[in-house]
Amino acid sequence: MKTAVSESDLRLDSRSRDLRALIVRALIGGNRGHFGSSMSLVEILRVLYDDYLCFRPDEPDWVERDRLILSKGHGCLALYALLVDKGFISHGALDSFCHSTGILGGHPDALKVPGVEASTGALGHGLPIGVGMALAARIRHQCHRVVVVTGDGEINEGSNWEAAMSASNHGLDTISVFVDYNKLQSYGGTAEVCDLEPLAEKWRSFGFSVREVDGHDVTALHSCVRALPFEPAKPSAVICHTIKGKGFDFAEGQATWHHRSRFSPEDIARMRSVLKQD
Which pTM value belongs to this model? Predict the structure, then answer.
């Protein structure tokens, strides 16, 4: 079983750096934000939007679209970067992140932001919502797929496991859960706060078909999403081993970079310096 990702395993390509640059633009615009929680998500969301989800940016409420729910809503800057990249919202919206005049808040708001399927932030709600969406699609004879992206600390919440039982009980193979397993919560390591292991076996015991992947390896993620669903009549779980703050050596694996309420000129210079590297 793959249990960790080395910080030197993978070098970010230009697209991953460009998406992180969008996140940094929003962080600077709002002078705050969940830095580490967003950076660990980039490749997961990148591959889902590039290679799996069916959507129409000019028609965000298109009935046949696939649904993606970012259950770990505090990682919304990564989602905003993809929504900008795909044309749901403008680049300029990033500059007013967390401003009273802007649409982009510290957690995603489905009533304000095109492309956001659910307002999340109170952790543990995304999978229950996703199960409801998948059941509704079945009842309506619709064939769209549902993806829920969770955090590892978030799945301490019991509501996730109630929803997992329901997804399995109903044989919802149209729903997939991606766990951003960066091993670090806001105030400590997941192994210390509430150990999740054996995580893959937990999901299997709840009736899911499970795969593990390096959550920053774009090629491996592409192969993984193309295989969904992994088994007929079973929901799928993808455990993505990631690094909190990925791409910024001064922040990788550092709980102090989970969230910042302000950035010093030195912080901003360091972020920009990393993005300029070849």
Answer: 0.94
Strand bridging mode 184-185 / 188-189 = antiparallel
- Mean pLDDT, contiguous 10-residue spans, the chain (278 residues): 47 93 97 96 98 98 98 97 98 97 97 98 95 98 97 96 98 98 92 96 98 97 98 98 96 92 93 80
Residues pairing with 70 in the sheet: 149
Kindly list the distances between the CA atom of residue 125 and the CA atoms of 27, 71, 112, 226, in Å, as whole numbers in the listed order.
25, 6, 19, 26
Instruction: Give the residue ranges of DSSP H helices in the chain.
Output: 14-30, 35-39, 42-51, 76-86, 126-139, 158-169, 190-194, 199-205, 218-226, 265-275
Angle made by CA atoms 184, 157, 128, in degrees to the nearest 5: 120
Question: What are the sequence ranges of the domains in the chain?
Answer: 14-275
Q: What sign has the CA pseudo-torsion 181, 182, 186, 188?
A: positive
Task: Give the architecture (CATH level 2) of 14-275.
Answer: 3-Layer(aba) Sandwich (3.40)
Strand pairing partners for 181?
241
